[in-house]
Amino acid sequence: MRYHLLGGVALIFSAQSALAQDAATDTGNQGGLADIVVTAQKRAENLQSTPIAVTALNEEMIRSKGISSAADLTAVAPSVSVTTSPASSTNMQLFIRGIGDIDPVLTSDSPVGLYVDGIILGRAAGSAFDILDLERIEVLRGPQGTLYGRNTIGGAVNLITAKPADDFHASVDGSAGNYGYYSLKTSLDTGNIADSGLKARFTYLHKQRNGYVDDVNAPDTRDPGAYVLDAFRGAVSFKTGALKLDYGFDFSKRESYAPAFQLTVVRPDVLDYLQASPALGGSAPVYSANRLDSIALNQGKMTDRVIGHTLTAELDLGGVTLRSLTGLRRWTNRNTGDDLDGNSGLVGFTVSPAVLAPPYTFNPLGVTPIDLFSTTNRRRQNQFSEEINILGNVGDRFEYVVGGYYFREHSREYNEQNFLLILPSPAPIPLTPQVTLNSFGVPLSTLLDYDHYNKSLAGFVQGTYKLTDTLSATGGIRYTHDDKHLVQRSPFVRDLSASFQRVNYAFSLNWQATPSMLVYARTASGYKAGGFNARSSNSGFNPESLTSYEAGIKSDWLDRRLRVNLTGFYASHSDVQLQQFQAGTAGASSITVNAGKARYWGVEAEVTAKPVDAITLGGNVGYTNRKYKQFLILDPVTEQYVDVKDSARFMIGATTTISAYAQWDIADLSIGHLSARADYDYRGKIYFHPTTVGTPYNDEIASGPRSLVNGRISLTNIDLNGAKAELALWGKNIFDKKYRLYGIDFGAIGYAGNTYGEPATYGVDFRLKL
Q: Could you give the CA distance from residue 343 to residue 372 in angstroms, rounded to a whole number?
């Protein structure tokens, strides 16, 4: 199939080559599509001349889509899926081409690298924080093991912030909407201070919202989905002679309440036990396969604090540039209580945990309040990284980048879990004349307590040689050495260390067939580091590897009125780190082993058209065909390994993604410029666990295909005595699509549930710029 796919790409090129010759125009064409400059290959390049599958959004696109953090990246590029997990509002799962990771444990590495101004965020947990002054987003699809290193087998995302402006500017951005939402952001650019080469920019943001599901036990400000955010960013640039310095500092504090977790399916014997609760003086159990607008929870506040420092130094040595990129980041998180059963006020007949161990003493505790599953957590992570680049050219034909990289990280987690194990009684238990039970509950708890240390060293080189004026070859290689160290106190007492080494490569041929058409073929490898799962009883797992083959076309047509970028790819994935979710007497755990092999092939298309100056149309489509070649998993019933490759599911990443938008610049009115925009986002069905072995309700809690529609009407360029103002009305999920955001299968203890995406939201934005 992959040969037909690549052949089809070549056929498209050959059929349209003559038209492309006529489409070549100057990049400054006023009526055509604008160029976007990216730094995906460590140097500034035109997006259409960069021979990798990369999508870029500029500041205007980011604002129109309402993107403020990595959690908003769904639909920005083909084959990209994003979700956030329960028990947090900042734990994010980012998948590209079906590759990602769902485990929020701090010893788990994501196979998609997330960067802020070139600094990697070491953990996916806590990464969905608001990033101020986003200027550009670059989404690189496919392995990026040469320039970006380990843990980028699925791809990499770089969030790039704005640098201080050359001139003085001040702006105020305000927004208000339903569910008590409002935000206020102020920014100040000093401009070039006394022509010294020193510039600065300062931004402060306050944002808050009530929850979007009514918790009958809490006020609106503590409903699920509620938050209060304060964030600050300072950026300073200095340039003198050949030296350029850019320093950035960011701080954010977010107090929030997790999305509502509700029961979707309950095992019959567990439901029978819970349905006795009203007769015993408690609440009735609530479960539903549809989103509930009102729910009774017992959850506390989560607090996330993020601090980051970034220093980029560039020294132009005349034909050679020396660059240093230094990053220091710290994240702390506290969850004072999260409800993962969607019910509060339940009571039930319980028995001491002594019934589970010899001599199996049956010690009744009576009718007590019960929690099916609740958790508290304290986590923190800090990291330091340093990267050195040497960029240069040899003559007119060869350009290169040589680099070295160092990364150090320390993570800590203290996670308490409380849950109820419901067991059948050997004889009926009469509690009242009206209530007789055939089962009893055993309240249990477990503790996850550990420190994790992580170090990585790497050296890399990549170069591009022009074989002819239109044909270039690019090759790169990277060596990486990783050290992992786990010091654990509970539920296992252990001290584990491991080291891993790997060499990755990339090679591509790039043909500038016409001034407006680039054709490329690329092969690249990547690796995800091995390590430990602090929840898993095994002693660790090895790295996983991926090798990708890709061909693509980037083209502009019709006097730059039409832009078409096509990609076809095939990837082979080995030693896949697979997880089996288990929930039982030891708590909820995810066992990680190297038990899988997989292959992927797919096609991606991005199209932008400007048929007339007033209208811009765009869209992208991603299709990824995925198949496990091996998936070994431990059957908890037989305690034997079985290969479930034919029935196993790929998690989170959808097989098909479709995104489209239409922008209409309606008219220049006397008071300003009127425009309208509509966005459409489709994502195919997704699963939250890989198999029904150990998670029997996986199919029942899956999220079906969903389509979202957003809209925005703007009045810009309003003149207020020399100041410029903007006013916009917006709506997200306009048709109030009810869709599942995440799911957890507690099948081993008798139930499963989901969180749901946000309902329809709407509001107004205002901007004043001096």
A: 8
Distances (CA, A) of 397 to 25, 464, 482: 24, 8, 35
Distances (CA, A) of 31 to 133, 612, 613: 28, 8, 6
Q: How far apart are CA 567 and CA 546, in angstroms?
A: 18
Q: Could you read off the pLDDT of 460-476 as tens digits, one per residue?
A: 999 999 999 999 999 99
307 closest CA partner among 116, 586, 439: 116
Fold of 2-769: Maltoporin; Chain A (2.40.170)
User: Are the beta carbons of 431 and 366 closer than 8 angstroms?
Assistant: no
With H, G, I as helix, E, B as strand and everything else as coil, classify residue 737.
Answer: coil
Collapsing DSSP states into helix, strand and coil, what is residue 71? helix
Task: Cis check for the bond before 491: say yes or no (omega within 30 of 0).
Answer: yes
Helix/strand/coil for 759? coil
SS3 labels along 122-154:
CCCCCCCCCCCCEEEEEEEECCCCCCCCCCCCC
User: Parallel, antiparallel, or unpaired for β 155-161 and 112-116?
Assistant: parallel
Tokens encoding 482: 């990783």
SS3 state at 357: coil
Question: For residues 255 and 208, what is the distance between their CA atoms, to the nearest angstrom?
Answer: 9
Sign of the torsion formed by the C-alpha atoms of 693, 698, 700 and 705: negative
Q: How far is CA 226 from CA 89, 209, 296, 576, in A?
A: 10, 5, 15, 37
Residue 269 carries which side chain, given as an amino acid letter?
A: D
Which string of DSSP letters, residue by residue, matches 79-130? TEEEEE-TT-SS-EEEEETTB------TTPPPSEEEEETTEE-S-STT----
Check pLDDT > 60 for residue 5: no
pLDDT for residue 9 is more than 60: no
Find, among 413, 441, 422, the residue nearest to 333 by Cα: 413
Whether the CB-CB separation of 347 and 291 falls below 8 Å is answered with no
Contact at 8 Å (CB) between 82 and 90? Answer: no
pLDDT single digits (tens) 652-698: 989 999 999 999 999 999 999 999 999 999 999 999 988 888 789 99
Domain ranges of the chain: 2-769
Written as six digits, the tokens of 727 are 């006013």
Which two structure tokens, joined as six digits, stand for 573? 């994935």
pTM higher than 0.85, yes or no?
A: yes
Residue type, 451: D
Determine contact, residues 309/234, Cβ cutoff 8 Å. Answer: no
pLDDT (tens digit, 9 = 90+) per residue, 353-412? 999 999 999 999 999 999 999 999 999 999 999 999 999 999 999 999 999 999 999 999
Q: Give the burial class of 171: count Cβ atoms within 10 A of its Cβ; 0-12 exposed, 13-18 middle, 19 or more buried.
A: middle
Q: Is the peptide bond before 359 cis (omega within 30 degrees of 0)?
A: yes
Residue with tokens 């070859």: 473
pLDDT tens digits, residue range 231-268? 999 999 999 999 999 999 999 999 999 999 999 999 99
Neighbours of 276 (CB within 10 A): 24
Phi, psi of 358 (to 5 degrees): -55, 135
483 class by beta-carbon count within 10 Å (0-12 exposed, 13-18 middle, 19+ buried) = middle
Q: CA–CA separation, 568 vs 552, rounded Å?
A: 6
